[in-house]
Write a structure and sequence with these properties.
- With 251 residues, the protein is of the alpha/beta class.
- Helices cover 40% and strands 20% of the residues.
- The strands form three sheets. The chain has a five-stranded parallel sheet with strand order 2-1-3-4-5, with helices on both faces.
- The longest helix is centred in the middle third of the chain and has 24 residues, at 115-138.
- It is globular and about 55 Å long.
- It starts with 12 loop residues before the first strand and ends in an 8-residue tail after the last strand.
Amino acid sequence: MLQNEAERPVRERILVVDDELLIRKLIATRLQWRGYDVTLASNGEEAVTSFQREPADLLVLDLMLPRLNGFEVLSQVRSRSGVPVLMLTACDRLEDRIIGLEMGADDYLVKPFSMAELEARVRSLLRRSRLAAHNQATGRSTAATQIEISGLTIHFGIRQVFRGLTRLSLTSMEFSVLELLVNQAGKPVSRMTIIESLWGCLPARHADTRIVDVHIARLRQKLEADPKNPELILTARGQGYQFQRFPEPAG
């Protein structure tokens, strides 16, 4: 008996953007084999047009692209969507990785990389995005799943942060970093612990821990009254970062 169209699970769509034909084909083959719907783009203009025509659930985005470069594509995508973005970068361009993260990318892979690692990163990013979308759609938020501090309300159920009635625009990864720190409020959390908990692996290079610093900086810009003198997300010198301890209840 044929399965009804409405009963078929919707396959998550991934837009892969890279100007190297071989890399595009390798990534597409691996992800299609894992059940994803894959769309390919070979340059920045093609990527933006494709995303405008049919938004993807995740972008795999090379930074070195013709016509529009990866930074320009990322900027245009971020102006309209919080979709997870996995950057592909050259191994000797640390500054590019930092800029990309500061512009709102969620994670990165350094070329050359293994297809198994790419698949793991994609799976992790989509899992967090799927959870956030589900919680938001079901309106899952109770007193037990939210906190209020320094004028902010953090809703863990729907993975959103509000200042008064204004929703702050956090990416899925930024919220995950915040959630981890809040759950350990008052205790230092090392960069390595954050990476292992949220990315599911330990970095191959010490410089890769900078990914945490960039996400922390972006969170401070969005949450702190004075990002240069943070009061919520503190630096635990030599240890990592910590969310401030919650005040003890009066009486």
